[in-house]
Amino acid sequence: MADANNRWVESYLDALLSEGLSSEYIKNRKTEDGDVDEETAKFDADRQVNSKYFVNQILQQGEEGLRDAWSKATSAKHYEEKDARLEYLSWRVWFMKRNHARVKREDAKTLAAEKVHLPEDDPVLDTEDASDEETPLIFDPTASQKTAGTTKPPLSESSKRPQPFKGVKPVATKSDRRTLDDEDVASPGDVSAFFDHRVDGLYIILISLHGLVRGQQMELGKDPDTGGQIKYVVELASALAKHPAVYRVDLLTRLIKDPKVAKEYGQEEECILKPEGAENDLGGAYIVRLPCGPVDQYIRKEKLWPHVREFADRGIAHAKRMVTTLAAAKTPCELYVIHGHYADAGEVAALMSSTLDVDMCMTGHSLGRNKLEHLLASGTVSKAEIESTYKISRRVEAEERALESAIMVFTSTKQEIDEQWGLYDGFDPALEKVLRNRRRTGRHMPYMNVIPPGLDFSNLKVDLPEDPVIKEMQQHKPAYGGSTPKAPQDSPKSGGGRTPKSMSESTRDFGDQPEPPIWKEISKFLRNPHKPAILAMSRPDPKKNITTLVKAFGENKTLRGLANLVLIMGNRELIDSMAGGSAKVLTQVLKLIDNNDLYGSVAYPKRHTQKDISDIYRLCLATHGVFTNVALQEPFGLTVIEAAAHGVPTVATKNGGPVDIMSTLHHGLLVDPNSSKEIADALVKILTEPKEWEEMSNNGIKNIMAYSWPSHCKQVLESLEKEKQYTKTHTKHKGRLSGSLDMSNRGAMDRMMSTPLAAKERGITHRISKDRADFWKEDQNQPKDKKDNHTGSSLRGQDRKHFVVVPLDGAFRVKDMAPSIQAVKKAAAASNGAVGVGLVSMMGFEHTRNELSEADVDLDGLDWIVCHSGADIWHGQQDGQWEADDHWEQLIDFRWDRVSLQRLLTKLMTAPTLLTPAPSVKGLSPLARALASMPDPDKEEKGVHPQHLCIQLDRESKSILGQGTGNHKLALSTAVVDRLRRRLRSNGFRAHLTLQMVPEDNDLISNVHITPLRASRALALRYLANKFNLDMERITVIVLPPTVSKKNEMYQVGSYTSDLAELVSGLNKVFIEIPKQDQAFDMSGLDSGDVMSVEKLTIKVGPKLFGDRVQFIKEQEHLGDIVKAAKVSNDSK
Prior knowledge:
This protein is of the alpha/beta class. 41% of the residues lie in helices and 13% in strands. It has an eight-stranded mixed β-sheet with strand order 3-4-2-1-5-6-7-8, sandwiched between helices. Strands 20-19-18-17-16-24-27-29 form an eight-stranded mixed β-sheet, sandwiched between helices. Strand 18 and strand 19 form a beta hairpin.
């Protein structure tokens, strides 16, 4: 320990000598007239700051180090000027330390006499006041020559007590953190009280789709997709599994068997936490890896979008299997919530939630609209380049879809709600408050809940206060049939926390242990590694703003002389092999180092491990350094919390998470990340004021348990439970359609099914769905036992092992699709009942049946028909009757209010004053003006479908809508749907919109089908697979598109409906018939707006994208072979 302290003393003495003492520098730079120029004076002021700092650090060390330094200097064989200066300086500082102690003792006696106790953590004293006037800290060569051979410097009689440095108040202010309303806040006390009513344990699914995810030795910073989110979700899974009400947590991510990455990422399941004494149990926390896209390739997240539905299908299958397995093991669990992280996982969670009828929540981490704004503001990239690189529009749409389904969205700060989520159509802070206070079934906005992110302290080499939540959980875990998870051996000590110590007692005392290896790696770069370390730890991403930090360091002479800059920028091998953005940032850093001649003052090691992270923070603490996070926008700021846990003061960005973190921990300063001067000034302020540094250090540790994982999980689960209970107690407001098929109250049904649109009102023509009402009349003649039988015992499809599905995009397609349907039915009939046939139709049931009858296709041999763009499912029964699926109707009633929705549409069409869009809905005014000018409908519609609306945009309407768009260069129909969708979202309505293009007399008629959020043809397929206990791999879809073209191994597949991409994506097999010449639709006579709308519905399909899951066939005769292949596949399974 003595040798270690001696090295610190020698390092600081060397820093003093290398800098040159301020007064001797002035003496050497004086002019003949004895004056000092302004530049010299300024430079000398910087040296005074640095000299003061290093002397203060030496004063904190023991006398032994100073004595040894003096001894080495006097025993040098070749007496040089530096040795003489070192000898003199050692004596001088030694005297100051003894004088300091003497003054302290005298003051202690005085205070004792007055019965006043001096605090033990008396601040470090100002060196200018500590040294008496007779012995200034100035190097005088003559004086050093005189004192070089002496054994004792002259003593001073001065007993003046130094004054402490003035403190610096953090600029952060306490934010009004958003929580649940008073009646929704979990009461303190028993952590298990909220879940006593639940008999089963909780099963929770987390989803983090992209990046490299593993439980140990996480490769954070390896690439842009493997950052703080990976660490967050792994630690969250472990922490949730420790909650007494939770039995199992699965973290779903992508399976990767790429030889370029570690083999652990190809392991299908990895246990990251197992309860103690339950080695053979199924409980705990697990990483479950599912195939998604090309398994043998690790691809960046922007290329995963075509495979999101595939991952959702696999997630659904996994969840069903796991719930069944847990029940079979006599540990039944409730699938409590599906939690998506980031946009891609948010959409997966929404899809799984829709099929499994389970609540979902979301954490955004980083938001697309916010990123788009920052990138555009930077002026370095165009919007087209942003779209090409980041697929930003697809990402934003995924986030909007997650908002539609989420019961709650978790954020780390209130700023994230106001400045980031407030940019989205699906969330408006003011409307959310109104809807929450006056809850309406058909209108919804998710609750934004601010809960600080947690931190896993078990991996940190620090002593922290005891977490009261852990003690609470340990008491209640056995009551739920489990045991308390075993904590790692190096978990933080429980008890009293960190007692403030001097630097020599705490930060530099490693006992007999050698310095951590990562310190040596960092020291290789530095001329004097014991100077304060200004630490930055992030991947080399432009938004992390590392270059501005290097610029701030290089331009400030005080910082350059006072400290070192340590940049931990992930792990790398060769710069040329790094991702383009990362390589560019690193190259810019190296250029800044060279331009400012920072060699020997900046460290940037090539690699580090997860175990090194705590040691890196400890280096910053040991050198009395400062941690920095000056990202342009920081969603969470986990590194800021980690620094606080290690007692390291922090300078952080004022944009994002650190604002709330600083207001909670009070351990640093906030700065504008775009101002290098402001960053440098904040660093100098903390480094040069020891009292403030110590106060910030202690504040971070004292308040850190606000960010413990147990506290985080307790808040998350209790807020979710409160929201669930609140939602369950809410029933639909009176006067709203339930969508029931019960005919006992037919009169009330007739009244509720009258359309709000009167004959004289202006609006878009409505093609009202009357098929269900027509069928009800026939249905009344059926026996009651048949009509009310929804058990599925007599359904044709109940014993099928595979289904072949044919989409019907409209009546105009039935004639072309009839041969394919007949061929499939014939082949299925020969499969001995293994293969069934279903249709997914845009038409109603009666309409579909009539059109098929005209094409000589009867309903015999069909097992079920999805109608009204997914709003109905009809099942064929063994006795030849057809029955509507009431369970599907109940499922899709989620957040649906048809009457309120139609009222909004009526207002949009008939009240121009209400067409002015909300501020968050941009670009809708032209649409609003056009809608107000639309002609009256031809006739009054008398009935409406309870869960389906169809809006027709005829040629005249589209012409009006095209006003101001510039010669029809805009795809009018798709633009209308996009704008309408945004308007519905901004008003809190959750619905699924499908655009249908219908050829009619050398024209295209555009229909917009509006159904409940959970009702679509693709989601209906997933429901049916779930109903018949089949995976989506046992569903085959046969598509006959209007056009197919090939270019560079990729096929461009046209469509008459906007949901083709949904039908093709997923696990289901797809066979696409290449249309014959006479079947292809001729678009040559259409106006450009119609053509571009069809082209916008085109999707790209190819073997590189979907492998052999999607195939092309040329003849309908091959359909029989497809059905036979399905049977063989089922037999083998």
